[in-house]
Amino acid sequence: MRNVDFIINLNEIDSTQTLAKQIVKSGKILKWGKTLIIARRQLCGRGQGDNKWSSNYGGLYFSYIFETDEEKLKEVINLSVRFAEVVKKILEEYGIDCIIKNPNDVYAKTTKGYKKISGILIETIPFNGKRYVIVGVGVNFTNRIDDEFKDIAVTIYDITAKRYSKKKFLEKFFKYSNDILKDFLT
Questions:
Q1: DSSP 184
Q2: Strands 130-139 and 60-68: what pairing?
Q3: What's the rounded Cα separation, in Å, for the pair 141 and 164?
Q4: CA geometry: angle at 86 spanning 80 and 92, to 5°?
Q5: What is the pTM of this model?
Q6: Are 151 and 145 in contact (CB under 8 A)?
Q7: What dihedral angle (degrees, nearest 10) is formed by the CA atoms of 107, 109, 114, 115?
């Protein structure tokens, strides 16, 4: 995949975002470079603020770490919407009508209105005089939605009755994100 130097694949973790922060703070990021963390399940997936993200097996959950310049940090606020547009574009290729709910969610049209199908979380962290951006993305593919979210969330499978490759989704994500990343990568 473009713009990825090191990949970590995990079966289960508390949160890919938490691990991403640990990787930066430990200094491993200096050796690994642009790092992608993928989990099959998150036990404590999270969204903006303290919002919980339902992260059961069957979904796609990943965090991507890259270095950026301090001067580009003021533009980071736009990153969640830009990455949401990438996710929306891919989902529309699957025939799913989507909207972006600012600042960081993608909602899919269902027979009962729009429901959340994806969330994007952008965080920045300083380390060793440098600044790192962590892009966290969760997409509901075939995962079971927790009861507390059934009225507000939906999966790709719920809408299309088809199974799509998470690997191909990731490949498209990085392909379509190339121009965004060019603006931010050091």
A1: H
A2: antiparallel
A3: 7
A4: 130
A5: 0.93
A6: no
A7: -60
DSSP 177: T
Domains belonging to the chain, first-starting first, are 6-69+77-184 (3.30.930.10)
Q: Is 47 left (phi over 0), alpha (psi -120 to 50) or beta?
A: beta
Q: Which residue has the tokens 């499978």?
A: 157
d(CA 42, CA 61): 8
Contact 30, 148 (CB under 8 A): no
pLDDT band at 50 (very low <50, low <70, confident <90, very high): low
Q: Which residue has the tokens 């790092």?
A: 35
The average confidence (pLDDT) of the chain is 91
Length of the chain: 186
